Amino acid sequence: MKLKLQMGHELLVQGPATAKLISGNVTSLAKPLLVGEPLTVRAGRLRIIEATDESELDMIIGQNGKVDDVETSTIPHDWIDLAKRMTARKTTDLRVIVLGGLDTGKNTLITYLANMLLGAGFKVAVMDADMGQGEIGPPATMSVALLENPIFDLLEASPESIFFVGATSPSYLVGRVLQGTEKLVSFVHESSVDAVLLVNMPGWISGQAAARFVLQMISKINATHLVGLQREIEVEDILREIPPRMEVVRLTVSPYARPRSREERKFLRETSYRKYFVGSRDITMHYGEIDFSPLFSSHGEKASLKVIREVENVVRSKVLYCEEGSFSINAIVMGYVDADTELVDEEADMQQSNDGENEGDPERPVQKEIRVIPASEMDNLVVALFDRNERLTSLGILRNLDFRAKRATVSAISKPSELKKIEIGRVKVSRQGYEIGYAEIRKILSK
User: Fold this and answer.
1) What's the CA dihedral at 279, 283, 288, 292 to 10 degrees?
2) pLDDT at position 413, please?
3) S-S: 225 plus which of 96, 114, 126, 404, CB 3.0-4.6 Å?
C-alpha cells in the first residue's frame, strides 16, 4: 500500500513489514532511507521512520504487523541532547555503558547514538553483552561489531568477535561474562584503538547481585559514562553506587517502547537460533579438550581416580566425566542417580563465589558438594567449537558425546579443520530451533 507521511511526522512500524521510499526524505534512527531501498522490520520488532520532507512510502504489512502515524517525535528529547553532547566532544575517549530493564529501548538508543557518532566522523564499536535479547550475535553469546556505516538496527551489524557464555542470563555465569567482557574490550583496543565503545547491558537490574555485577562490568570496561534508562526509578539503586569519576546520565524510556511478554522474548531468541543454524548438519569429530565451565558455572581440574570412585559410591552410577572445582565436585553420570538430590541454587552459588567460602581460614577444610548431571540431560545443549588456534569457529547443538573415544556429534553449520576444544553450555535448543529449557544440575544432599 502507498502511504504519505507529512514532514515532522513519524511512522511506528511493527513487524513483520517492509517499507520502501518512493519520494521525499526519511530517516530511521538518524540513518537516511534511500529511494527504493527496503527497510525490513522483522516479526516482534518495532522500527521508527521519520519524515524530514513530505514523503511517500510503499508499505508491505505482514500478519500481525501494523503501522501508526505519529505527529510528534518518538525519540525522547534527552536522547537527542545526549547525542549532541557526545558528537560535540573533541576526544574519542568514550566508553559508554547503557543500562536498563527489559524492553526499555537499549538497542534502539545504541543504534541512534552509533548513527549520530558515525555521522559526526567518529569510529564506533558496539559490544552486545545481552546474551538473552542481544541483536548482534546469537543467543548465549556476547559479541562486538565495528561499525563503518550507519545501520537501521543492530541486527544488521556483523559480529567481529564472539564470546560463548553458554546461557541467556548473566546471573548464572557472572565470572564467565566478566571474562568475556575483558576479551571483547581487548579485541576492540587491538582492532580500533580510537573507536567510541557503546555497550549494551543485559536487563538484569534488581538486587544486590545485579548491582555488584554492573560495578564489575564498569571496572572491566573502564567505562567513562553510564546511561541509565528507566521508566521511573528502577535503576536508581545501581546509579547511586557508581564511582564519582564516571558521568552518570539518566534518560527516560520512550513512551512508545512496548513491553514484551516472556513468550515474545523467547520467540525472538528462537528466531535468532533458527537464523544462525540454518543449513546445519550433524558432524562427528574428535576433540582435544572439553570445557564444562559454562555448564557447571565454574572451572575445575580433572578429578583423581579416588575422587571418581567416591562419587560413584555416593550416586550409585558410573561416572563418565568428573572434575574438581573450588567449591564442588562436578560429575556427568551414566544413568539414574540413586541418592537424595536437589536442584542447584544458582543465586546462593553466586553469593558463595563472590564472598569466598572459608576465606581467611586456611586450616578449615572445604566441604565440597557433589553436583551431578545424567548424560541423557546433555542432549541438545548449545556448544561452541574452537579450532587449533583456539578461535571460535561455530556454535552447535550437541547430539552425542563419547568420553572414552573423545568424539562428539554436533549439529553445526561448519566443521573446524581441527577441533581443539568444545565448550558445553547450559541452554537447550531443538533441531527445529526451539528453546527447550536448561540443563538441570542437581547436588547430592548430605545424610
Assistant:
1) 70
2) 85
3) 96
- The Cα–Cα gap between 36 and 127 comes to 31
Taking domain 2-70, whether its CATH number is 3.30.230.10 is answered by no
Q: Which residue, 37, 33, 39, is CA-closest to 61?
A: 39
Using CA atoms, how far residue 369 sits from 214, 313, 324, 343, 366, in Å, is: 29, 14, 10, 12, 9
Tell me the C-alpha to C-alpha distance, in Å, between residue 283 and each of 376, 377, 425, 431: 19, 20, 18, 14
Cβ atoms 88, 80 nearer than 8 A: no
Q: What is the pLDDT of residues 371-425, one digit of tens each?
A: 999 998 899 999 999 988 888 989 999 999 999 898 999 999 877 777 889 999 9
Domain 77-259: top CATH class: alpha beta
Record the cell numbers describing residue 343, joined without a space: 536442584
Cα–Cα distance for residue pair 236/227, rounded to 1 Å: 11
pLDDT at position 356 is 44
Residue 195: closest CA among 84, 117, 270 = 117
Question: In sequence order, what are the beta bridge partners of 66?
Answer: 14
Q: Do domains 2-70 and 77-259 have the same CATH topology?
A: no
C-beta separation of 315 from 338 below 8 A:
yes
Total-model pTM: 0.90
**All structural domains of the chain with their residue ranges:** 2-70, 77-259, 275-351+368-444
At position 430, the amino acid (one-letter code) is S
Per DSSP bridges, beta strands 66-70 and 392-402 are: unpaired
How far is residue 285's CA from residue 303's CA, in Å, rounded to a whole number? 25
Cα separation, 413 vs 196, whole angstroms: 33
**pLDDT of amino acid 447:** 54
Instruction: State the average pLDDT for the chain.
Output: 89
Q: CA 141 to CA 163: how far, in whole Å?
A: 6
Helix (H, G, I), strand (E, B), or coil: what is residue 82?
helix
Encoded amino acid at 34, one letter: L
